[in-house]
Amino acid sequence: MSVLDDPRVFLAAERTLLAWNRTSLALMAFGFVIERFGLFLQLFKPQAVAEMQRDASYWVGILFVALGAVTSIVAVVQFRRMLGSFTVTEIPEGYAINMGVITNLIVAVLGIGLIVCLFRGPPL
Q: Which of residues 56 and 72 earns the better pLDDT score?
């Protein structure tokens, strides 16, 4: 891809990976808030309307959390493909190149865990 032989190219790719990490975290947090907002609506609405809105907010929230987890995984795949195109001189010597990848994968696993928790419902 690049013939610059400059480590800044790799560091820019890593910054992009971490930007996608922040995006996936924001999507998951937004999804969680939407999902829980349906519970809040049940307190102030008539029962039939509250149930319909609760179902809608539940599924929209789950979809946002899932989108965040998928975004995190796709960012890792894209970064690994980009990493394969770099030359040795573009990667700083002794640099731990997998820290961003590990972080994104942990975020994805936690997002999937959150989806499982939301499906199971509150503990009894």
A: 72
Domain-embedded: residue 1: no
* Rounded Cα gap, residues 20 and 94, in angstroms: 24
Q: Does residue 24 or residue 89 have the better pLDDT?
A: 24
pLDDT at position 124 = 40
| Cα separations in angstroms, 115 against 1, 28, 59, 97, 102 | 37, 10, 11, 29, 20
Total domain count, the chain: 1
The parent domain of residue 92 ranges over 7-120
In a domain, 83, yes or no: yes
The pLDDT value recorded for residue 71 is: 97
Encoded tokens for 99: 């820290």
2 domain residue, yes or no: no
